[in-house]
Specification:
This is Alpha/beta hydrolase family protein. InterPro entries: AB_hydrolase_fold. It comes from Terrihalobacillus insolitus. By secondary structure, the chain is mainly alpha-helical. It has one domain. The protein contains three helices and two strands, in the order H-E-E-H-H. Strands 1-2 form a two-stranded antiparallel sheet. Strand 1 and strand 2 form a beta hairpin. Helix 1 runs antiparallel to helix 2. It is globular.
């Protein structure tokens, strides 16, 4: 169920203005020297979708945590 909700959030997020500041999603703070600087073109909606997904991280079991890592990696690959 959360996957469908996440997909809907992601699609909605594509229509939001682009964030120009590099974002470190894992640390939740701005970091211009971040190794995740490829995220600097994420839209506000996409960022919200990832943070919403991240909020569910602690509720996931081990198999879902592996899936989350694969999902985030695929999103990084799409943005490069």
């Amino acid at each position: 169920m959360w996957q469908e909700n996440y997909n809907a959030l992601w699609e909605w997020g594509k229509s939001i203005d682009i964030i120009e500041t590099p974002i470190t999603l894992i640390q939740g703070k701005e970091d211009s020297d971040s190794s995740l600087s490829e995220w600097n073109k994420l839209t506000l909606g996409e960022t919200r979708a990832l943070k919403t997904l991240g909020n569910h991280y602690t509720m996931m079991n081990t198999s879902n945590i592996k899936f989350l890592g694969e999902l985030v990696q695929s999103l990084i690959d799409q943005k490069i």
